[in-house]
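Hi L., both proteins are below.
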Amino acid sequence: MMYFKRYVKAASIIEFVAQRLGKSVDEAYREVIWKLEDAFGDPMRGLEEAVIRGDTVLRNAGIPEEWIEHIVEAARNHVKVKTLRISGIITVRSFEPDGVERIKKVLMEAKKVIDSSGKRVSGRIYNIGSPKYRVDLQGYDYKELESVLDEVVERASKTAKELNVEFSFERLKL
């Protein structure tokens, strides 16, 4: 039932675009909907990917160029992509005279991983009460979020070990 509802919504969005372009419903199915279904298994998934990644996914699916700009615009206006969140708590302690600087370096390494993960994952690290810092990641793909979080923990742990800083990580269940 859910697949059917998603299919009908995607079809109505594409039919709306076809009407704006002066195309028939048959042309909309032949040139767009069936190609999205072949490429993504579900036309709505194709529209969601267009919202997330932009027009290149439509080009890769074989959609004619005259449709692409209009489809992306309509998808951004009518398709809401759910974002996922994962979180964890990093605990860092140092008893060295320059401990604050060492802790900053550990957290900055973790932040670099988040910043280098690209547009699909965003996140932040903030203090919730010394020595605990919360890591929040947000994105569209659970596996990708998990991968970035694992890399954050790995890089921070490695840096902490090099700088003689106590480090622990606890995953939060949201």
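That was the first. Here is the second:
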Amino acid sequence: MSKNSFVLLSYFIDKKTPLYGNTPAIKISDFSNIKKNASANTSIITIHNHLGTHVDAPKHFYDNGKAISDFKINDLIFEKPLVINCFCKPGDLVNIKHLEKYEKELKKCDILLLKTGFSKYRKKRVYSTRNPGLHPVAAMWLKACFSGLKAIGLDSISVSSLCHRDLGKETHKILLEQKVKGATPILIIEDMFIPENLNEIERIFVLPLMVKGIDSIQVTVLAEIK
């Protein structure tokens, strides 16, 4: 049994969770309540599937693309993580210049975590309105040059900056496309928690809420640390 420790890379969801664009907030209501003479407490949860830490699958932008439930559990366990510091100002886009010096490491990795440092703004409005994203040219470079890359995660509310939504849509399509130069889709994990000094990662586990046929869903992301 592993003696390694684990770090949670997801956020808990509540009514204060940042909202991207017109995404509605979570709604939680009582279905039964002990204080109202029910035998147990139960709740009804209404949640948008792109709220909080979540994973985008190809079906998010392609009707015939894979749903997140089409991926096997082994597809969501990553053995060769790479964390890149690419600190961004509001509205910045991560580009090739941020990434190219890590080309050697990128050739070996299966999941790339982009630490923009923007999580420091998560309790402020700017986190939702001027978030950094990934430039489509950088997305195409990653897709074309690193066939082992299966997922990208970042500590921003979306890979699509709200300041550059058209570019963000293009980035999504490039990463999630299943047939670009014969490459497999690259899953996108948004609104992650990526702490300082996240070193010596053994593996990353991406554990989606098990809802059949949906394009994207909330995930618990765990980093196993040596």
